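User: Can you fold this complex?
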Amino acid sequence: MPENPGGELLCASAELEERGRAFVWDVLMYRQRARAFALRFEGRVVAYINRCAHVPTELDWQPGEFFDQDRRWILCSIHGATYEPADGRCVGGPCGRGRLVAVTTEERDGRVYWYPSRDIQPVPFDAAPAESFP
Ligand code: FES
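Assistant: Here's the predicted assembly.
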């Protein structure tokens, strides 16, 4: 059960097509700027931190494009680690027993919300742009 029943508004439900382009946004993970992404898979919205379990780098081969050619798996563009979209588990490639870090989401009334946790927080409204972070 999310701590904040309201959640943070992410996007309209219609923006996330089945196995389509992901919605990407900035968060603070352990107080460091990171990117997260949300996509729709088998009707459900799932979201993860955009960070490979192999080497901590972003996965998408173009902004918001995380799926492999068949749009079945999340595929890391760097060395081909393959993840199950439904739960972020590594299913092939160099991610071993790792998994993507999940972000809790909820879809209601035609909108998608995400829920901060102790480790993953929204970027403060007045924070400097990403380029100026160390
Ligand atoms: S960084 Fe993702 S597979 Fe190596």
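The pocket of FE2/S2 (inorganic) cluster is lined by residues 52, 54-55, 57, 76, 78-81, 93-94 (CB under 6 Å). The two ends are 34 Å apart (CA to CA).
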